[in-house]
Amino acid sequence: MATDLVLVRHATSVVPTPGGPDEMTRPLRPEGLVQARDLVGELLALAPTAVASSPYLRAVQTVEPAARALGLAVGTRWELREWDSGLAPTPDYARHHVHRWEHPDEARPGAESIADLDRRVGAALARLAGEHDGGAVLVGTHGTHGTFAARALLAAGAEVDWPFLVAMPMPAVYVVRWDGGRGATAVRGPGLPLDRA
C-alpha cells in the first residue's frame, strides 16, 4: 500500500548567528509560531496517522499544532535532522553549500557529505513509509542550509536544484507518495510541476 510522507519544511525561525542558539535549540520566530498554527487546517486535510520530526526545535514547533489537533505525539528521529555541513554560521553560507551540491562526495572534516545525506534521507523515508504502510505521516523537516527536504524531493524523483531551494517557501508542505518496494511514485508541492507518476 502507498504511504504519503508529508514533508513540512519548518516555519520562519531565528536566524543562525555566532553565539546564538545552536542548531538543536534554535526556535521559531513569533511569526513562525503563527505560520505553524495557520498550517493546521492544510495538514489535517491530508489525514495524517502519525507525526515524526527532526529533533531540532524549529521543526518540532512547526508540526506540534497539527499534532495537538490530531491528538498525536510528535516522535522525534535523529535521522530526520538537518544536514551536518560542518560550517559555522556565516553570511556567505550559500557559496559553501552550492559548492557541496556541485561536489556531493566532499565533506568538511567530521561533517556529512551531501552523498551521505542522500543515503540517510532515502533510508529515513523508506523506514517511515514501511512503519506506516497505507497511512500519511507528517514529517517536520528543514530546507535552507542542509536541504533535507530538497534532498528528499530529489530522492522522490523531483527536479530540484539550488535555485529551487533558495525559492522554497518557509513553511512549505510537500507530499511524497511512497509505494512499498517501488519507492516514491509521486510528489507534489510548491514550485514543483504536477504530480510525477
Describe, in plain words, how this protein is organized in 3D:
It is a single chain. This protein has one domain (2-188): 3-Layer(aba) Sandwich (Rossmann fold). It is 36% helix and 18% strand. It is built from seven helices and six strands, in the order βααβαβααβααββ. The chain has helices at residues 30-38, 40-44, 57-70, 93-102, 114-131, 148-155, 162-167, and strands at 2-9, 50-53, 74-76, 136-141, 172-179, 183-188. The radius of gyration is 16 Å and the shape is globular. Keywords: Isomerase. Pfam families: His_Phos_1. It comes from Saccharothrix longispora.
Shape verdict? globular
Percent of residues in beta strands? 15-25%
Structural class: alpha/beta
Helix content: 25-40%
Q: pLDDT under 50 segments (min length 5)?
A: none
The figure for the number of domains is 1
Please describe the biggest sheet, giving its number of strands, its sense, and whether it closes into a barrel.
6 strands, mixed
How far apart the termini lie comes to: 16 Å
Total count of helical runs of at least 4 residues: 7
- Say how many strands there are: 6
Helix and strand sequence: EHHEHEHHEHHEE
CATH superfamily: Phosphoglycerate mutase-like
CATH topology: Rossmann fold
**What is the C-alpha radius of gyration, as a whole number of Å?**
16 Å
Instruction: Give the quaternary arrangement of the chains.
Output: single chain
Query: Looking across the biggest beta sheet, what order are the strands in?
Result: 3-2-4-1-5-6
So what's the CATH class?
A: Alpha Beta
Average pLDDT works out at 88
